[in-house]
Design goal:
Elements lengths: L1 E3 L2 H13 L9 E6 L6 H11 L14 E6 L2 E7 L22 E6 L13 E7 L4 E7 L2 H10 L2
Parallel strand pairs: 2-5, 2-6, 4-5
Antiparallel strand pairs: 1-7, 3-4, 6-7
């Protein structure tokens, strides 16, 4: 478990996650971000983008549902599925068209997509506690296992 006492520490962990990523990804990599509202999912995603060199505004995709960032050899797709009312709405987002080598998906509220998402490489569970936020990481693929090992070194 990673403990983050401040939003800056959550963002710093997101940057660490990005710099530990196998580079350049030869297949789609997917990170699913689980947690209630206020758990730090978007803050972590913002840090991930900064870790890959993004210097502009990193908007929460709560209303747009999807933001794409071309960052050199990597394209990050940040999706927030919170507003999906039905899992079948997932297909209308066009994410399957972005299932490409060199792409990394950061998916907030993945459970809202039902079984429409491919398996994640990493599952991050974030939770808010009175004095800190916790981040639990689980690898779900060979790429995720390699990525997780790089995070812990």
């Amino acid at each position: 478990m990673i403990a983050a006492a401040t939003p800056e520490e959550t963002e710093a962990f997101g940057a660490r996650l990005a710099t530990a990523m196998p580079a350049p990804p030869s297949t789609l990599l997917q990170v699913q971000l689980h947690g209630e509202l206020g758990a730090g999912k978007t803050t972590l995603a913002r840090g991930f983008l900064r870790g890959l060199g993004h210097t502009g505004v990193a908007r929460s995709p709560t209303y747009t549902l999807l933001e794409t960032y071309a960052l050199g050899a990597v394209t990050v797709v940040h999706a927030d599925l919170y507003r999906l009312q039905d899992p079948d709405e997932f297909e209308a987002l066009g994410l399957r068209e972005l299932d490409l080598p060199g792409h990394v998906w950061l998916i907030e509220w993945p459970q809202r997509a039902g079984n429409h998402l491919p398996a994640a490489d990493l599952n991050l569970s974030l939770a808010a506690h009175p004095a800190f936020h916790s981040i639990e990481i689980e690898a779900s693929s060979a790429a995720g296992t390699s990525w997780l090992a790089r995070i812990h070194t």
